Amino acid sequence: MRGQTDLPKRDREILVALLRQFISSGIPVGSKALAAHLPENLSSATIRTVLAALEEGGFLVQPHKSAGRIPTEMAYRFYVDRVVAGARLEPNTEKYIDETLRCDEDRLECLMIKASRTLSEVSRNVGLVLAPALEEKLLEHIKFVNLPDRRVLVVIVSKPDLVENRVVRLDDEFTQEELDQAANFLNAEFHGWSLGTVRLEVFKRLEADKILYDRLLKNVATLFMWGALSEAEAGPLFVDGTAKILERPEYEDVQKIKQLLKTLEEKAKLVRILGACLQTPEAGVRILIGRENSEKQMQHCALIVAPLHYRNRAVGALAVVGPTRMEYDRAIGTVEYVAHLCSRLLSIN
User: Which site in 13, 122, 175, 183 is 20 to 30 Å from 91, CA atoms measured?
Assistant: First the structure.
């Protein structure tokens, strides 16, 4: 059986030509159709011999005897790793993305909505953006405002977001003076820290010196824990272009499309999928094809994902989801460029 690393030049050329033709048309490709797309004049008999060898090697399958051949996941992996790696978008497409991602307002939500829409439009698939979680953001300023009925308004100014407001109900009564003391302590001690790190440090200091910090830090811990980070929440998820999937012939199978649409509707599952991709040591864009996806409902799809950075910290993710018959060069280039541009826009805010 032939492996991915030892394909002869002719076999490689025929496989790549077949992949490109099938990606474009979605129709099984035969030897006659291939002949017109090859760089040298080869007889149909020669092409058929190579196709049979590629099928034996696991790169192609034949739906039925009289049909042409279609690529397997192994063929798509070869194509991604050996042919389209490092693919870049056309300059006019990059210019379109630059213009589309401009936001008149300094708000994270505006950028994330535009990014998911742009990923979908340019790649012609579903665009996903997992925005930074609250605990990943860097504290600029925090304020607590006393409200009736033991409620407190928590105002958090952070980077790379602008302002987030939360109203929380507490078990204890607080005076406005106590709220101001707690806010002043947080602003003085933890400016520029990630909110997740602040939470850990507050409780560490409370344990270290209960007598010195007892009253103030208890107040801070109560307010910060309930008002800012009651739990390690994932950031908001933005999805665009789901309807585009319905147009693909791959999803004429009703059961298959139902499974995919259900996955795209489940935020927790998508967050887990994107988060798992970012927990790996590989840097930059990551591509999962078919059964390389851990989620069963995604195993007839390709997922292309890249981290979203705030300065040097990965704080979110961007992705494109579509069928395995995908324009990989365009999709990879889109994810890479949008991720780079969004990270730069976040980091200069």
Answer: 13
- Distance CA(19)–CA(29), nearest Å, equals 9
The radius of gyration computed from the CA coordinates of the chain, to the nearest angstrom, equals 26
**DSSP label at 134?**
G
| Pair (162, 78) in one structural domain | no
Q: What tens digit of pLDDT does each residue of 91-101 get?
A: 999 999 999 99
How many Å from the N-terminal Cα to the C-terminal Cα in the chain? 54
Q: Cα–Cα distance between 226 and 69 in angstroms, integer?
A: 59
Residue 89 has pLDDT above 80, yes or no: yes
Domain encompassing residue 271: 91-132+235-347
Domain at 315, CATH number: 3.30.450.40
Asked if residue 124 and residue 259 are part of one domain, the reply reads yes
Based on the domain organization, do 206 and 306 belong to the same domain? no
Residues 299, 252 within the same domain? yes
Considering the domain architecture, whether residues 59 and 141 belong to the same structural domain is answered as no
Same structural domain, 176 and 95: no
DSSP labels, 205-271:
HHHH-HHHHHHHHHHHHHHHHHHT-SS-PPPPEEEE-HHHHHTSGGG-SHHHHHHHHHHHH-HHHHH
How many residues are present in the chain?
Answer: 349
pTM: 0.75
Query: CA–CA separation, 226 vs 209, rounded Å?
Result: 22
Residue 210 pLDDT exceeds 60: no
Q: Identify the CA nearest to 331 among candidates 305, 293, 308, 299.
A: 305
3-state SS string for 258-309 = HHHHHHHHCHHHHHHHHHHHHCCCCCCCEEEEHHHCCCHHHCCEEEEEEEEE
